[in-house]
Give the backbone structure.
Amino acid sequence: MTEQLDAEMLKVIVFQLGDKEYALPVHQVQGIEKSVHITRVPRTANYVKGVINLRGVVTPIIDLRERFAIPFLEEEDDTRIIIISHEDMEVGFIVDAANDVMDLPKISIEPQPEVVDSMEEEFIAGVAKVDKRLLILLNLEKVLNTLK
Amino acid sequence: MDTNQYLEVFIDESNEHLQSCSENLLVLEKNPQDTAIVNEIFRNAHTLKGMSATMGYEDIANLTHKMENVLDAIRNDKMVVTPELLDVVFESVDHLEEMVADISGGGNGKKDVTQTVEKLRRLENGEPLEGTSATQEEEISITSDDAIQSSELAFDDFEKTVLEQSSEQGFETVEIRVTLRDDCLLKAARVYMIFEILEKLGDVIKSVPTVEKLEDEQFDSSFAVAFVTKDTPEDLKQKLMKVSEVETVIITQIAVKKLSTQPNEQEEVTTAQIQAIAVTPKSEEKQVTTTKSNGHNSSKTIRVNIERLDILMNLFEELVIDRGRLQSIATELNHSELNETTERMTRVSGDLQNIILNMRMVPVETVFNRFPKMVRQLSRDLNKKINLEIIGAETELDRTVIDEIGDPLVHLIRNALDHGVESPEERLAAGKPEVGSVELRAYHSGNHVFIEIEDDGAGINRQRVLEKALAKGVITEESVASLSNKQIDELILASGFSTADVISDVSGRGVGLDVVKSTIEALGGSVSIESEQGKGSLFSIQLPLTLSIISVMLVEIEKEVYAIPLSSIIETSIIKTSDIMNAHNQKVIDFRGKVVPLVFLDETFDVPRASNDNDGFHSVVLVRKGDKMAGLVVDSFIGQQEIVLKSLGNYLSNVFAISGATILGNGQVALIVDCNSLIK
């Protein structure tokens, strides 16, 4: 029984953005960094905050608030950069806080509801309800796509 | 034997020996009388044979052995160097290269080389190359079958070499035939005991049946071993007879010289080979002397994996960043001893940086040296007479660039040979010397390395290029008139273009040249063509000296730091606001009599301005692209620095006017300005 459960589990990193909680599969996450100096890169999309020096590798940073058109928030102590790796790209996401690592039963993941109020609709791969928390799973492909 | 740990060394060294073989063969072709060169080639082949036999690559060992026989005959004046002979030797070297390439690609180095082996054998025996005779392969197998039946030992080439060498060193070679008693119960145990005794006394070269079979008791009652020892046969016999249940021990001496000819006995061997082997010791003496004289000149080197150098480089970058931090802390604290130590460290790490960067530099020779053979082969295939001249092979380039430029150069040289240089008849008709010339040049210029390929062939037929380009849809009718000659020439670098009327397998299907262009551009370089019809063409490749380190000038705009490559900077200057003039909505300055447009980087890069205070002066960096210039207006100059070039990552692949990034001493990222895209 347990074995079967394990197989159906998805380990995710849960992070906070505005008043919502989002999740990314742990295998796509390279690490979580505290905020460091970001060098602005001119003439890029508004949500590209710039690049950082991640242990000798120049890594682009995307502000997910800007990307999802969530109102701007002043940087706080909790602000984190989640480094993700997708296909051959390494990108950092600025998030309000990194909350949790948890096992998500795959069964609890549902396709996104038909009506979602905001612009972020297209970036959602699904939603999961765990206890009383609603986790939004991101579609990395879409989040990263437009710049290509 | 576990040979894996030696595999890399084997591959590296084999390649070196093969390279030197082909180089020397080319020299030999020009001076057929020079036996010193033959000796050199012989030595290479000999080493290669030894190594490959040790590593268990029998095909290589076999082929090199045959090649060696031929070379040996040449240097002992038993044979003269003829073009046919060289062709066969070249062919063998080609095969060997393929086999070594196969091994380095993870293969087993096996290849069917019987044809070449047969050719070498015929050369050796003075038979004509053409004509029919039974293949070597069959005869060898017959010999070895016979050997087992008639209980004589047959030796392969490697074993023969070992036997020859041990006899030179004063060892006796004997064949020992041991017969066990018919009622022997523990045959394997007896075999084991006999081998144990033998191994104490000398070396077992071969046994029939094989040791594995013997240990599995897969033999009747007797077996034979070839054995090299310093003991006398009588002693041997006595010691072996002490093993229980041994019926008889027959020991016969093997004459090494006679044995060497054995596989060829049925082929009516001429005396050439026997003599060839008989003189081996003498030739090896010669070899020793040449090795000694060479040994003095060569500097000591070790092989280092390029990955380790990369790791070293990365670690050093981290060190540089920390060095920068330390420097700023030291300045802040103003502690004299700390300052002193930091300065020392800065100097030492500066030297270290130079060394690390230089370690990655490799002469282009490593790429160029395969071309003479290629040109020789190609000109034969194409029935053209071509002389390749290489200039500046010692020019150094970063290892990463070297690795990439091989293929593009092959394409360009093939192109020059196939499409550039005309056939001898055409050349004579055009009043040119019969032999065409292709010149391969490499040289440093500024922060770049230029590699040029020039031929004195037909040049580019612009009319045909245009027709083709139109037919293939590379350009449109309307644009034809506006194209300059240079632009037309460069159309042949466009994809899907081939001007050869007949698609040949030499220069491919026209996919070659656009690949050349894209590869070179991916390396941060460029390709240009100059051509004059009837006179020849010049392909010029411009490459950055190194991919990883460049000299830049750091400038500041508000709080942002940007790096401008020194290679594009002409000079820096401070101008008054009143010097700025307007021309067609474009701000320009008069710089030494030239009108130079100004680019305000803060506007171009949308730098957020805290305040708009202007003291009436502007710092300007004058940059150029070809013969065009521009002045980049910045807030202040920080200074010159060597930086490590990094990419912005795949996500930000196409940012306007930014060619990359680097990490500064304080750990922050600075962007590198791409001056080329700022100059229109």
Q: What stands out?
A: DSSP finds 25 helices and 22 strands in chain B. Residues 131-151, 260-296, 500-511 of chain B have pLDDT under 50 and may be disordered. Residues 4-126+280-297 of chain B form a domain with the Four Helix Bundle (Hemerythrin (Met), subunit A) fold (CATH 1.20.120.160). The first strand of chain B starts at residue 172 and ends at 180.
